[in-house]
Amino acid sequence: MILYRAYLLFLALAVVGSTVAAKERLELSARLLVDADYYESFWSRGDDNSNAELYLRNARIEVEYDFPAGWEAVLQVDAEANSDGSDVDLGTTYLRYTQWKFADITLGKMKEPLGLERNTSSAKRMIIEGAMMTRAFTPGKSWGVHLFNANKRRRWALAAVVEDDQDNDYKEDSRTALTGRYTWSPINTKEQTLQVGASASIRDWNKNRFRIRSRAEIDSADTVVRSAEFIADQQAVAGLEGVWRDGSLQVQGEYMFTRVEEVDGPDWDYSGYYIMGSYLLTGEQRQFKKGEFRSLKPLAASGAWELVARYSYLDVRERGLGSKAAVYTLGVNYYYRRDLKLMLAFLHPDISGSVRHDDPDGNAVSMRLQYLF
Predict the structure, then answer these.
(1) pLDDT > 50? residue 84
(2) Separation of alpha carbons 241 and 196, rounded Å
(3) CATH number at residue 9
(4) 192 touches 245 (CB < 8 A)
(5) Tally: H helices and E strands in the chain
(6) Minimal CA–CA distance to 134: which of 208, 212, 222?
(7) Phi, psi at 10, each rounded to 5°
(8) How far is residue 365's CA from residue 373's CA, in Å, rounded to a whole number?
(9) For residue 133, what pLDDT is reported?
């Protein structure tokens, strides 16, 4: 019932917005992500051997307005609903100036330029959930100032931000960070792409509590992979990334390392990586523009099919505390049109160190219906 009511509200807003969007300079878009998960004891809460959940992962309304003289603004509102309740939050929201030759300058709330997967829209991802590494080491959307410049061959971005404490869990002052990313594409044609990049972030935790918690790539599951918990001073994050595409075949991967300084204590080192491959069975070729994925458009009216595989690893065990975990994922995606996608993923985990369940084993299946208005 929650999903049905949320969908009706979302549909009504989209219909009204489509009329408003006809005005010059104003664009309105929306998206709907509905997920279903089934997972066994590795991911389960308490003593449960399995769980299943159908939920509204994201319903989004986005308004974009192009002002005269190089100014533009974006406002996003996100909603979600599951068995634990519902929530509405302010998403990406900014004012941007695009006529400065050195770089576009943006003020507002948006993703930090840290990592490839984090800066790929969830609507364009090939697997439903981001890798454990991405969720563990890269933050969500933060308030701040961003500089950005890109062309066909290279892309750079720099941001100074204050993290958004939407969960009200900061005990001291809000966390601040300086983050940057650079990518270079020596090859970027219609048939082939090669892109490599690096990113880094220096983060001031301001004596807040630090702990990495991961749901191991099932969003409705418990946080089954955890690090030690302590009061943190400074954190440094560094990452490497790469993408290679030849026709319908694509391989990408990332590695990240972080060092966290404990207040009046030792440094804690954690790392993670993933490697992922995809193949479009129906002949489509995923394109890049200025270092970003473009939306996939099926070649035929019958749609496009894609096979995906990923190996994901996260090491948050140090001084005998925390876990090391891996997740193997096989997936299949069906793109009916550019605006409609069905996704299915099968996951198998492996873990050592601290565990949350007496039987840390099992498998999971995750599904998604995605519709873009």
Answers:
(1) yes
(2) 6
(3) 2.40.160.10
(4) yes
(5) 2, 21
(6) 212
(7) -60, -40
(8) 27
(9) 96
Q: What is the pLDDT of residues 96-106, one digit of tens each?
A: 999 999 999 99
217 φ/ψ angles, rounded to the nearest 5 degrees: 75, 20
Q: What is the mean pLDDT of residues 168-191?
A: 85
Encoded tokens for 373? 């208005």
Beta-carbon contacts of 22 under 8 Å, excluding residues fewer than 6 positions away, are: none
Query: How many structural domains does the chain have?
Result: 1
Q: How far is CA 29 from the centre of its chain?
A: 19
Please give the angle made by the CA atoms of 244, 246 and 249, to the nearest 5 degrees. Answer: 85
Q: Is the pTM of this model over 0.90?
A: no
Flag whether pLDDT at 175 surpasses 60. yes
The answer on pLDDT for 355 being more than 90 is no
What the block records as the tokens of 281 is 């069975």
Does the pLDDT of residue 8 top 50, yes or no?
Answer: no
Query: Are 8 and 32 within 8 A, CB to CB?
Result: no
Rounded to an integer, what distance in angstroms lies between the CA atom of residue 14 and that of residue 29? 7
Tokens of 58: 């994201």
HSE value, Cβ hemisphere, 13 Å, CA-based, for 101: 0
- The structure tokens 């603004």 sit at 73
Q: Residue 299 to residues 228, 305, 330, 337: CA-CA distances in angstroms?
A: 49, 11, 24, 9
pLDDT at 179: 97
pLDDT confidence of residue 45: 66
Can you say whether the dihedral through the CA atoms of 157, 161, 167, 170 is positive or negative?
A: positive
pLDDT at residue number 6: 43
Structural domain harbouring 172: 2-372
